[in-house]
Every structure is written in structure tokens, then in C-alpha cells.
Amino acid sequence: MQKLLILLSLLLVTGCSTAPAPMEFPVSPMMATAYSGGAMTITWKALKDQTYTIYYTDAPQGKLPGWKPLPQANRLLGEGKQITISDTISADSKRRYMLLTGDEKPY
């Protein structure tokens, strides 16, 4: 019994001392991206009366992303058809995007 308590104590102490892993979000399966001529084009099928916000990050993979709303794609109202927006970026940009609906936030 005493050994079990020691093991549990060690697990608790060890578990509390590790830093949390940065949150990662997969690319949204609802959107398509294409880069051409200095701009990233982002397209998705928007449901009628649903709001959408695209968040972006320039943080490299494995780092805390620090997602921010893309100004031109913040709380867009869907009309039941495709929405396409453009974001001007350099060809070597590592910018990533995430599409969320309603009042969803990245964190």
C-alpha cells in the first residue's frame, strides 16, 4: 500500500512539472487554399445565416500559434453559396489558416 502511494505521488509530481504542449488545429476540411501571384485565396461553402471567421498564424509548427482573426474574413455571414477571400502574403510565408463558425474561438 505504501509503495502504491509513493508511485501515485511521483506520478502526480512528474505530471505537474511538464509544460503543456502547444495547441495545434488541423486544416479545416471545409476550406480550400491556393497561392498565386502574392496572394493566398481561401474558399469555402458557406451555409445560409451562419457566421464564419478565418484565423491565421505565422508561428512555425510546434510553437504556440497565437491565432488572430483575418480582418477581411471576420464574422462573415453565409448566404448558402461559396465565399472566397484573399490574403496578401509572400511566397515563402509559413502562414496557416483555420476556419471557425459562429462564436468559436481557437482557444
Q: List low-confidence stretches.
A: 10-26
- What is the CATH T-level topology? Immunoglobulin-like
Q: Number of domains in the coordinates?
A: 1
- List the quaternary state of the chains: single chain
Provide structural commentary.
The chain is α+β, with helices and mostly antiparallel strands. The protein has a single domain (about 20-100), classed as Immunoglobulin-like (Sandwich). Strands 3, 4, 5 and 7 form a 4-stranded antiparallel beta sheet that branches. Residues about 10-25 have low confidence and may be disordered. The chain has one helix at about 1-15, and strands spanning about 30-35, 40-45, 50-55, 70, 75, 80-90, 95-100. The protein has 1 helix and 7 strands, in the order H-E-E-E-E-E-E-E.
In summary, what is this structure?
This protein is of the alpha+beta class and 107 residues long.
List the helices and strands and how they pair.
Blueprint: H1 2-17, E1 31-36, E2 39-45, E3 51-57, E4 68-69, E5 76-77, E6 82-88, E7 96-101
Antiparallel strand pairs: 1-2, 2-6, 3-4, 3-5, 3-7
